[in-house]
Amino acid sequence: MYELLTNLGSWLTGTAQWSGSDGIANRLAEHLQYSLLATLIATAIGLPLGLLIGHTGRGAFLAINLASFGRALPTVGLVVLVFLASGLSMWPVYIALVALAVPAIVTNTYAGMTAVDPDVKDAARGQGMRAHQVLLQVELPLALPLIMTGLRLALIQVVATATIAAYVSFGGLGRYVFDGLAQRDLVQVLGGAVLVAAVAVVLDLALSGLQRFLFRHRTA
Amino acid sequence: MIQFDAVHKRFPNGTTAVHDLSLEMPEGGVTVLVGSSGCGKTTTLRMVNRMVEPTSGTIRVGGKDVQRQDAAELRRSIGYVIQQSGLFPHRTVLDNIATVPLLLGHGRRRARTRAAELLETVGLTAEAGKRYPHQLSGGQQQRVGVARALAADPPVLLMDEPFGAVDPVVRTQLQDELLRLQKELSKTIVFVTHDIDEAVRLGDRIAIFRTGGHLVQCAPPTELLARPADDFVADFLGAERGLKLLSLKTLADVPQGPASEGGAWTLVLDEARKPLHWTSKDADLPVRPLKDDDSLLSALNESVASPTGLVARVDAAGVLTGVSSRDDVHAHAGLAHTEARTQTGVAA
Amino acid sequence: MTVDWSWISGHTDDLTTLTLSHLQAALTAVLLGLLISLPLAVVAHRVRPLRGFLLGLSNILFTIPSIAVFVLLLPISGLTRTTTVIGLTIYTLVVLLRNTVEGLDSVPARTKEAARAMGTRPLRTLLTVELPLALPVIMAGVRIATVMSISLVSVATYIGDGGLGQLFTDGFQRNYPTPVIVGVLLTLLSAVAADALLVALQYVLTPWKRRRA
Description:
Chain A is mostly helical. Chain A contains 10 helices and no strands. Chain C contains 9 helices and no strands.
C-alpha cells in the first residue's frame, strides 16, 4: 500500500507526466474544454426551458420529473449507445454529455422561478412593471441562486460523464483510467481517478464560494 | 376622485367578489374599506389599479376611465402598499424606494435623491437606505413600502391591510405616521382593513362590506357609529360602539374649574405648573393630564379610573388650566352621542 | 441500429442473473446507507458544529465522479462485489444523510415541545414522534438514493462487477447495440419499478397523510 502511494505521488508530480499530448496538463485542458462546452450547450437548452415552465407554470410535470428520469439513466449505457449508433464517431457523444446535464438545469431553474415570493411579484406588477420587466428585474435575479445551483450541478455531472466518455475514445482525464485499466497499470488508473476527483471537487467548491459571495446580501 | 359605477366582479370559479358597487371616494380623503374576509374589499381596491379587472361597470380615477388607459402606466401613477410589503429582497432599501421613478425614466441619481427624501419622510435614517430589506424589522419594512408608494408623488394611494402583519404597538405608531403624512400631503387614500378600530381611527369615510361583495353603508365614522344602517353594521362595529364614538370627540367643550384646595385629593405641580401627581394624606396617585384635543374617551377613562374622579386639564405646553369633574365629563359624553345621532339634518 | 430480438430470447437466463445481481448491489447499498445515515443524521441534527462538518464532507464526496470512487477503492478491497457496494453506499449515504437531516429539521418545534412537556424521554420522542414525522422527506431521499444507485451500478463494470453494466461493455467491445439497448431499458425499468414500490411503501407507512376517501 505504501509503495503504491509513493508511486502514485511520483506519477502525479513528475514533470514528464505533465507535458506532451498525453500529459496531465493537456488532458486536464481537454477535460475542462469538454465540460465547459457541454455545460454551455445544456444551459442554452435547459435555461430557457426552465424559465418558460417556471414563469408560465405550464409543463411543471416535466420540470419536476425530468430530474428523476435523468437520475435513472445509466451513464455508461447512454454513452456507449450514442457512440455505437453514430457509427463509432466521437462528436455525437457530446449529445450524451449534454443530455445528462439538461435535467439538473431545468429542474433547478424551475424551482428557482417558483420560489420567488408571489407578494414580491404582485408588488412589482402593482407599481407598474410590465411583464417582461417583472421577469428581468425581479423574477430572474431572485431565481438566480437556484439557477446557479443547477448550473453547478450540471457542470459536475458533465465532468463525470466526460470521464466515462474516455471509454469510447474521448480524451480528457478519463483516458488515464481506461488506458490504465487496459494496460493493467494501477498507478495510472488511480492517478486519473485522483485528478478527476480533484477537478470535480475544486470546481464545486469554487462555484459554491462564488454563489455565496454573489448572494451574500439576500435573506439572512 | 375615484368613482365606482355599478361595478361587478365575478371570478371564473363562480364566486361573486363584488356586487353592483357604486361608490365615490373623495379627493384628499382617506376612504377605508372594511369588512370580514371574503367581502370583496381587497378585490375592490385592486380594481382601482387594474390588478383585477371588473366583469362589468366602470371605474374612474380623476375622471378618467381606468380601463381605457395602459395598465402599467396607470399603476405608475398610483401608489400601492400591500401587507407583506413585497419589497425586492435583492435591492437595497434605497433602490426599492426608487423603483417607480426609475420606471418613469428619471435618472438614477434623481431617483435616488428622491428616495433619500422619502426615507426621511417616513421616519427612517439614511443608514437604513443602504441596508437590504431582510435586515429591517417588520415595522421598518412597512415604512419602506409606504415610501416606495409615495416616490413618484402619486395623487392616489392604495393600501391593502398594510399594518396587519406587525404587532399592535408598531401598528399604532404606523397609524400615527400615516395620519401625520396625510395632514402634510393630502393624498386620496383607499385603505383596506378588517379591523374596525383602525378604520375608525384613520378613515374620513368608512365603507362597510358584507360577504359576497355587497356595500352596506358608507359614511363618516361618527355617523356610522351613531347611526348604523342595519344590524350587520351594528354588530360589525361591536358592542362598544358607543365608546368608539367618544374616541372621535374631543373634550374641548367640557367645562373646567379651578383645582380646589381642601378636597380629599390635591394636585401637586412642578415649578412650571405642570401636574406631577395627586396626593392625599394616605397616598399618592399618578395623574394623566389631558389636553383640549385629546379624546372624550380618554377623559371618560381617566374620570372612571382615577379615585379622585377628576380630570386634570392642561394646555399645549402641559401647564395646568383646571380640572373637570366626573359628572361634567359624563354629561358631555351623552351630549356627544345625541349630537352625532341628530347630525346631518335629521330633526332632533 | 436495430434490436436483435433473437439475441434477447437466447439470453434470458443471463439477463435475469445480471438484473438480480444488479438489484442486489443497489439495494444492499441503500440499506447500508440507511443504517449508517440514520444515527449520523440524528447526531448532525442535534449537534450544531458537527452538522456543518458532516454535511460539508458529504457534499464533497458526492461531487466525486463515481468511476473515480470505485477505482480509488480498488487498493482497499480489490475487484470484488464489496468494492462495488462500498462505492455505492458512499453515494446513498450522502443522499440519505442530507434528506434525513432535512426531514428532522422539518418536524415542528412545537410538536417536540409537546412531547417533552408530556414527559417523553428524548430517545422515545425521536423514535415515536420525530422520525415518523420526518418520514416523507426521508422517503423522498430513499427514492432518490435507490434510483441513483440502480443507475450507478453499471459504472462498476469497469472494476469487473456492474450487473447490467456488463451488457454495455459487452456491446461496446463487439460493436453490437442490442445488449446495450436492453441494458439501458432494464435499468430504467428496474428504477421505475423500485420507485413505484417505494411510493406504495410510503403510503402504507404514513396513514395520517392519506386523503380522506
